[in-house]
Write a structure and sequence with these properties.
about 15% helix, single chain, Thrombin, subunit H, mainly beta, 2 domains, Pdz3 Domain, six-stranded antiparallel β-barrel
Length: about 400
């Protein structure tokens, strides 16, 4: 089972929107803050020790308090996770499931400084949240390009496993790219798979390449079902940074989730279908009404095999291509349709929605979750893989 790498027994089970690959990410720079990007300084391969030394002060521990209603009694619990500083004036990136439903959020640095943090915004479909603390002169990470990753590349994770072994480093390699997984609360995502040792409390921490650049956000691990005696080690996942950082900047800049999109839901072409002569690519499962794709003539069952001449081997390649575009750009899609290859030009549009969670209302406004079981453990056990891993 897949489960978020988060610790804490009081978290409520979120209802995430399924990840829709037609909504790729807005690229651009956020003004008014200072963050380092890979393009701004020379790249030099580093040792794991150097990466840790450079980035441990950019890593934070995150502790939240959550009140859960159990049979009419409210219980307050602590939840722990990780995060990392992205601007020198206090913006921090983490997973949304780390702070979902939190009443208070506390951020602690490697140097021992603690700050009360505010949730600036979140994108549930990408499991990201942007926090803000009142501080200046912080050390931001350098943001890299997850699109440059290859299977076999070395990677480094820094986080707070178990919420106790703070600021731990683990290392490994990229095991797979664009790995489709569904985590315990139902969201389906295309993630980087690594063999780094990731455990409860690592959620929201940074995954670095060997240039010391953030290329992923650790958010899940593979775990056995409750009661299983099987031991599953070193199968961990991270959100590709290049697919979400445009949304992060949009949240910081405007408080909105702004994404370029073309308006298609896509999947991979199966191996069996390829064996019967269909090309690899991103197979169109649905086309949104009045979307750029519909206006351009994209149809269900089309297979996108290239964007602007660059091969598309799977749905992740299409998502990356849209992520690299800007609103208003025209993309030339090579499409396989009923035995023929055609070209379709699509103008990239934009989807905008609020980045703040809806306020609860009515009778349940003061409670997180009505749990009809005898304990938090009983409630969590109803969900495969939901063992607070």
């Amino acid at each position: 089972m897949y489960s978020e790498a988060k610790t804490g027994r009081g978290r409520r089970i979120g209802r995430y929107l399924a990840a829709v690959l037609c909504l790729a990410l807005l690229a651009g720079a956020f003004a008014g803050t200072s963050r380092a990007s890979a393009a701004e300084k020379p790249r030099q391969e580093m040792s794991a020790a150097d990466i840790y030394e450079q980035n441990v002060n950019s890593t934070v521990g995150i502790t939240t308090t959550i009140t859960t209603n159990i049979w009419g009694y409210q219980t307050t619990s602590a939840v722990s996770g990780s995060g990392f500083i992205i601007t020198d004036d206090g913006y921090i990136l983490t997973n949304y499931h780390v702070v979902e439903g939190a009443e208070t959020i506390t951020v602690t640095t490697y140097g021992g400084d603690s700050y009360d943090a505010e949730l600036v915004g979140r994108d549930e479909s990408n499991d990201i949240a942007v926090l803000k603390v009142d501080a200046k002169g912080l050390a931001p990470v350098t943001i890299g390009d997850s699109g440059d990753l290859r299977v076999g590349d070395e990677v480094i994770a820094i986080g707070n496993p178990l919420g106790e072994l703070t600021f731990s480093l683990t290392g490994g390699r990229v095991s797979a790219l664009n790995r489709e997984i569904t985590v315990s609360n139902g969201v389906t995502m295309d993630l980087i798979q690594t063999d780094c040792a990731i455990n409860s409390g690592n959620s929201g921490g940074a995954l670095f390449n060997m240039y010391g650049e953030v290329i992923g956000i650790t958010n899940a691990k593979y775990s056995a079902r409750n009661g299983s005696t099987a031991s599953i080690d070193n199968i961990a996942f991270a959100i590709p940074i290049s697919r979400v950082y445009g949304v992060v900047e949009s949240i910081m800049d405007n408080g909105t989730i702004a994404k370029p999109f073309i308006g298609v839901t896509v999947g991979d072409v199966g191996e069996e279908a390829i064996s019967f002569g269909l090309p690899a690519g991103a197979a169109v499962r649905a086309v949104e009404e009045d979307s750029p794709a519909e206006k351009a003539g994209i149809e269900v069952n089309d297979i996108v095999t290239a964007v602007d001449g660059e091969p598309v081997n799977n749905r992740g390649d299409l998502a990356d291509a849209v992520a690299a575009s800007k609103v208003g750009d025209t993309l030339t899609l090579t499409v396989y349709r009923q035995g023929e290859s055609i070209e379709v030009k699509v103008e990239v549009g934009q989807s905008v929605q609020s980045a703040l969670p809806e306020e609860p209302s009515g009778e349940g406004a003061q409670q997180q979750e009505q749990i009809p079981y005898g304990s938090i453990e009983d409630f969590i056990s109803q969900f495969p893989g939901g063992s607070d891993s």
